[in-house]
Each structure stands twice: as structure tokens, then as C-alpha cells.
Amino acid sequence: MQPDSSASGFGPAFAKTPSSPDAEVIVVCEHAANWIPPALADLGLDAATRQSHIAWDPGALAVARRLAERFSGPMVEGCISRLVYDLNRPPSAPSAIPTRSEIFDVPGNHDLSDAARAQRVAAVYEPFRAALAEEIVRRKDALRLMVTVHSFTPVYKGERRAVELGLLHGRDARFATEMLARKPADLGWDVRLNAPYSASDGVAHTLDLHGCDNGLLNVMLEIRNDLIATAAQQDAWADALAPWIRATLKEGFA
Fold first, then answer.
1. pLDDT category, 8, cuts 50, 70, 90?
2. 26 — phi, psi (to 5°)?
3. In terms of residue numbers, what domain contains 95?
4. For residues 206 and 148, is the Cβ–Cβ distance under 8 A?
5. DSSP string covering 41-62, please?
6. Is a pLDDT exceeding 80 seen at residue 12?
7. What is the CATH number of the domain that holds 229?
8. Using CA atoms, how far apart are residues 151 and 161, in angstroms rounded to an integer?
9. What b/e readout covers 221-243, taking b as 16+ CB neighbours within 10 angstroms?
């Protein structure tokens, strides 16, 4: 794994996992880490909140790494908490630096100056964006599909979610809809299109900017985080997802 060498004081914004040059699938995990730079004083949050789902996507990084291994593909992951800057949002989006996430207030994000916001864009978003763009351009002759891996909390604002896997899309719905149509008959998961989020919630930035704009098929996997809490669960999900994704790419987009 190759972390970047950011000199911003924030620490590395991304890490890249290399692969064979002819890989067809690139895996992305924007919300892989809950690291908050010391200079930001924990954003005013206690330890339990910094470990919770609002700070990162628990379990997503492990599943993403296992998928990248199974595809022998590259992976780009974020190394800083989405509460510092949400890498799946453009700088123009208010939710890129949230003042509130679910039921939690984020004191350290209130009343930021334009300079403070610009610092986070420069230290977190831009290095990640550039790294992912460079990886895609460098592999443009072989890459066909971008898969982004996320997780979501089973209880949101007091309501329990039944969905176990969401297949999300932005401007290009082709792979998500084809993948849903090809769900293996023996797979018992509750799988839904555009749940528990959709592009209308602002979650399609990476898919559209790095997938659609580069002519790549793309899909976001949203996995309920209580189902990928252990290494055994993470292995099982990767073992089920990889052949399903591979078959969809091979048979649906030959």
C-alpha cells in the first residue's frame, strides 16, 4: 500500500493498493478511516462518537480490500474521517464538511472561515481526487468498472433498516440495474436498488465524476455494517460479491 506524502499537517489523505496493469475493476473506499488530525481537536467529539458510523464506514475498508484482491485490481482509499471532509462530496456541497450528521452535532465544523474550508479541500479532497483520477487515466485501456464500497448503520434516527445491501447509481444506472437483475438465486440478502440512499441524497459524486466522466461502468455497494463486523463476515461478503460482480460484467456487458 502506498500512502501519499501530504505535508499539510493533516496526514495522508489517501492510500493506493497496486495491482496488475491489465485489471478491469478498480475499487474505491472513500469512508475507510475515522482519523481526525490532532490540530482539529477531535472536532469537539467524544471517543464513542469518533468511533461511530458518522465518522467512517465500519467494515467497508476490509470488504473493499478483499474485493480488490479477488479482482487483482487497484484500490484507492480515504485516510481521513468524512467528518473532516466527505470525499464523496464536491467542495460546493454543504455536506462536504457537515455541521451535523444524523443526530450528532459536529462542533468543530461550525462557523468555519472560507480559509479553513479551503484548507480542508486542499489537504483532503484534492489529493484524493487527483490520485483516483491518475489511477484511472493510467489504466484507461484495461479498466471497465469502478466499484465503490460503503456501509450504513442498521438503525438511523431511531428507525431500523431491513435492507442489507443497496446497489446505488448516479447518472449511469446500467451496472446497478443489471447486477440486481442477476442476483444469485441462492443469495438470501435483502438487496434493493438505491437504498438506503440514492443520488438525490448527494451520494453519487464519485460515481459520476470518476466513473461516468471516464466512461467506466460503475456501482456503489452499500452494506449494512452489522453484517460485516467480523473478519469472517467480511470474507463471506467478498466471496459472494466478487463472482456476482464478475458475472455481471462478463455476461451483461460482453
1. low
2. -110, 135
3. 2-252
4. yes
5. GGGG--HHHHHSTTTS-TTHHH
6. yes
7. 3.40.630.40
8. 13
9. bbbbbbbbeeeebbeebbebbbe
